[in-house]
Amino acid sequence: MLMRWGMDMASHPLASGSRIYGPAQRARWTALAADAAEANAFYAPDMLCAALDHLASAPGVRLVEAQAGGELIGLLPVVVSQRHGRLPIASVENWMHAHCFFGAPLIRRGQEVAAWRGLLAQLDDAHWAPGFLYLQGLDAAGANAAALEALCVEQGRGRREVHRHDRAMLRSALDAESYWETHVRAKKRKEIRRLQKRLAELGAVEQRQLEKRAELPHWCADFLTLEAAGWKGREGTAMACSPSDAAFFRAACAAAFDAGRLHFLRIDLDGRPIAMLANFRHGEGAFSFKIAFDEELGRFSPGVLIELANLHAVQGDPDIGWMDSCAAADHPMIDSLWAERRTIVQYRIALRGRGLDRMRRTAAFALANGAEALASRLKGQS
């Protein structure tokens, strides 16, 4: 079910594979993304529409929009979850599917507080919205977190930070060589040079960035095959293991390429891919989406080699000001290569409403907070 300001756009939950938007709707989202206060390639139309087409399934995704003077100023994809962690408490969550690694809604620059005011007002009024709003994957120093905190203080609305962690990001004015020499240990640099020479002894090594649209289907197929040949394939989590995941990847790459926002790299050995990396751009930033490499050549560290190629590509591109690794906290490989960090946070935000809705939401927010506080005390005593 797709929801806009004050009205339902569809009468049923969004089913996987159903297209619920048209050119006019996408144009509105594109205009908002172009003027977003905080970049998020995962909610920009390239990836969002691909996800809605291929990954949105029951119980359904709702797109909550905030408007001001007829202008779209906020977009937040949400789902209803029947559990909150280990607690049997229903809540509204920003939609972060398995291939979404950042959850900041799109809010128009200069309208940050107004956008959150509109988004929360809709959730307060929505009878389908249980419990509280659980926000995942926000930048603690980003425009969304700042505006949300300001509004919660203004309204006396409950807001609780649930968790935070740091992950690697690349943000530096240094050129690639200077960055490499400044932030990577001399011993590691020497080892990488040795591995590059050893790899070159096996055959012709070529580094490339995707430039021709006609090659995109082949690059996507190569990436899916390469990823599936490794541990993700063995565990069943590679995108090729799921037709919908693979279709999402192809659609997102195609849309981003057409919009000039796909950043796709590969290293070939004698013409076959041994490492590939897909990034998605938004505004002046970029998000490192997925990496795949030939594990049979693991002794040459192809994953590190493609990241080195990525460092040169990013630092050599004046249109990319920073890149979020989208990696897990304390990732041993990327943390050793990128020196900057981004703090990612999760929040519980109290929802209001009237009558029974307000009572239930107040109780759910208090129960979740109380359970968390109790667990922390018990952990401290153990």
CATH superfamily of the largest domain: Gcn5-related N-acetyltransferase (GNAT)
Low-confidence stretches: 1-18
Tally of helical segments: 12
Computed CA radius of gyration, to the nearest angstrom: 22 Å
Strand tally, please? 14
Kindly report how far apart the N and C termini lie.
45 Å
Strand content: 15-25%
Number of domains: 2
CATH class of the largest domain: Alpha Beta
State mean pLDDT (0 to 100 scale): 93
- Class per helix and strand makeup: alpha+beta
CATH topology of the largest domain: Aminopeptidase
Helix percent band: 25-40%
- The helix/strand series, from N terminus to C terminus, equals EEHHEEEEHEHEHHEHHHEEEHEHEH
The major beta sheet can be summarized as: 12 strands, mixed
Q: Any idea what the CATH architecture of the largest domain is? A: 3-Layer(aba) Sandwich
What's the overall geometry? globular
Structural descriptors:
382 residues, alpha+beta, twelve-stranded mixed β-sheet, two-stranded antiparallel sheet, 12 helices
Question: Brief description of this entry?
Answer:
By secondary structure, this protein is an alpha+beta fold.
Description:
- This is CelD-like protein.
- InterPro entries: Acyl_CoA_acyltransferase, BioF2-like_GNAT_dom.
- It comes from Sphingobium herbicidovorans (strain ATCC 700291 / DSM 11019 / CCUG 56400 / KCTC 2939 / LMG 18315 / NBRC 16415 / MH) (Sphingomonas herbicidovorans).
- Residues 186-308 form the BioF2-like acetyltransferase domain.
- It holds the Pfam family Acetyltransf_6.
- The protein is of the alpha+beta class.
- The protein folds into 2 domains: 3-166 and 343-381, Aminopeptidase, CATH 3.40.630.30; 172-320, Gcn5-related N-acetyltransferase (GNAT) (Aminopeptidase, 3-Layer(aba) Sandwich).
- It is 40% helix and 25% strand.
- The chain has helices at residues 23-34, 45-54, 112-125, 143-155, 176-183, 186-200, 216-228, 231-235, 243-258, 302-315, 332-335, 355-381; strands at 3-4, 7-8, 62-68, 71-81, 91-94, 106-107, 132-139, 159-170, 205-209, 262-269, 272-282, 285-293, 322-324, 340-350.
- Strands 3, 4, 5, 6, 7, 8, 9, 10, 11, 12, 13 and 14 form a 12-stranded mixed β-sheet that branches.
- β1 and β2 form a beta hairpin.
- α2 packs antiparallel against α9, α3 crosses α4 and α7 packs antiparallel against α9 (243-258).
- The protein starts with a strand and ends with a helix.
- The model is unreliable at 1-18 (pLDDT under 50).
